[in-house]
């Protein structure tokens, strides 16, 4: 292990990654560089600096990546209307390629031999971090302590801290039984009573949203403005991507929007139950489909929907940096050239209802769609031949005595 002189660690400042710092130092006799990303998790990241310094870390990176995260990762994903297994809005999945990218950048800047992360050997994140790292730096060495050490419980971690004089911040009050991960797009909950898929989540588990039944009795109306598939303003006020998502999280959470309880199929093979709060993302998905409904050609819209599950799986499984995801992204982004305009939404007790959409690029032609006299814009007699031509193969089969059952 003497060939490893310096390691860049994705560092949160919590118990697990603090133990990893010391373990790397002890096991590899190497220098550790820590990297902490602020991607909107809602907690102060600056305290991680003092914790890293107390562990003898000399090179400490703490980066505010909120704008880059939403602009370059969340927004492109929402142009595709990506949703995994019909429900999951990919809040954890889409954050990992950004962290992997920055880990590699720091490794290159500092001349590190390896990178390291705190993901366990049971989850998806190890795959996402490492696929991203290998795509961006093929020869990089990855150290995943949870796959190597024998510290398999909180008690063994605390015992390691005591033995190695690692300061542990013991939080007062009731400790959450859930494993939680947050960023600007969502907060996730796993573990505790959620490991029983029949057990209903306790209401005090949720952090970002009120229960729909406790949401205001008066609906909230908002208007989102789009340019080329991305939200650029809320209620006529220009916003940056991170500002958009932060504001939608607040207004969505206040109206009980975005709670989700699912059992998903992890890439590593197991089923896992998780709960998620994605208030802003839930609003964004509904609104984006609404603006596309009047600006996209029918066949383009249908093709996008066919490609979307594959695109979503690529993100979920960690293939953001793959050539196939980039190819799909190019097609998706090309489809958004005319996806501009405004969407009006009503938020009420957990529901997002589209109540208006308009665009100078709209393909909706009222003169053709009207049920009133269309004044020759659409000849209804043309439909007879259209139907007969489309029925031709079925009529031929029926005349041959073939049945469809």
Q: Features of this protein?
A:
alpha/beta, five-stranded antiparallel beta sheet, elongated, Argininosuccinate synthetase, chain A, domain 2, Rossmann fold, single chain, 405 residues
- Largest pleated sheet: 5 strands, parallel
Give the tally of structural domains: 3
Order of helices and strands: EHEHEHHEHEHHEEEEEHEEHHHEEHH
Give the uncertain stretches in residue-range form. Answer: none
Determine and state the CATH class of the largest domain.
Alpha Beta
Q: Approximately how much helix is present in the residues?
A: 40-55%
CATH topology of the largest domain: Argininosuccinate synthetase, chain A, domain 2
Tell me the structural class.
Answer: alpha/beta
CATH superfamily of the largest domain: Argininosuccinate synthetase, chain A, domain 2
Shape: elongated
State the CATH architecture of the largest domain: Alpha-Beta Complex
Number of E strands: 14
Percentage beta strand: 15-25%
């Amino acid at each position: 292990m003497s060939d490893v002189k310096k390691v860049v660690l994705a560092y949160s400042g919590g118990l697990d990654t603090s133990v990893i710092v010391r373990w790397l130092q002890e096991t590899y006799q190497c220098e550790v560089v820590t990297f902490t990303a602020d991607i909107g998790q809602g907690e102060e990241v600056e305290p991680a600096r003092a914790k890293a310094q107390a562990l003898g870390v000399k090179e400490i990176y703490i980066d505010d990546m909120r704008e880059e995260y939403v602009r370059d990762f969340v927004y492109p994903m929402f142009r595709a209307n990506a949703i995994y297994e019909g429900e999951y809005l990919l809040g954890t999945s889409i954050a990992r390629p950004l962290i992997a990218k920055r880990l590699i950048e720091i490794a290159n800047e500092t001349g590190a031999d390896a990178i390291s992360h705190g993901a366990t050997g049971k989850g998806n994140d190890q795959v996402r971090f490492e696929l991203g790292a290998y795509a961006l730096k093929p020869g990089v060495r990855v150290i995943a302590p949870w796959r190597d050490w024998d510290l398999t419980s909180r008690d063994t971690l605390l015992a390691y801290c005591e033995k190695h004089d690692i300061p542990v911040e013991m939080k007062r009050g009731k400790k959450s039984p859930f494993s939680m991960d947050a960023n600007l797009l969502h907060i996730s909950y796993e573990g505790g009573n959620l490991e029983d898929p029949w057990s209903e989540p306790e209401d005090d588990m949720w952090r970002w949203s009120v229960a729909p039944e406790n949401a205001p009795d008066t609906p909230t109306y908002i208007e989102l403005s789009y340019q080329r598939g991305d939200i650029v303003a809320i209620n006529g006020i220009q916003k940056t991507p991170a500002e958009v998502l932060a504001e939608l999280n607040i207004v969505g959470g206040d109206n009980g929007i975005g709670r989700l309880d699912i059992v998903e199929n992890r890439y590593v093979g197991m089923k896992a139950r998780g709960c998620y709060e994605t208030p802003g993302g839930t609003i964004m998905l509904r609104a984006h489909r609404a603006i596309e409904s009047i600006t996209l050609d029918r066949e383009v819209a249908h093709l996008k929907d066919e490609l979307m599950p594959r695109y979503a799986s690529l993100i979920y499984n960690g293939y953001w940096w793959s050539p196939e995801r980039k190819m799909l992204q190019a097609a998706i982004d090309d489809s958004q050239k005319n996806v501009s305009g405004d969407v009006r939404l009503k938020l009420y007790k957990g529901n997002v209802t589209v109540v208006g959409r308009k665009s100078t690029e709209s393909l909706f032609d009222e003169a053709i769609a009207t049920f009133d006299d269309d004044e020759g814009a659409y000849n209804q007699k043309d439909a007879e031949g259209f139907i007969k031509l489309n029925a031709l193969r079925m009529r031929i089969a029926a005349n041959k005595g073939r049945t469809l059952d």
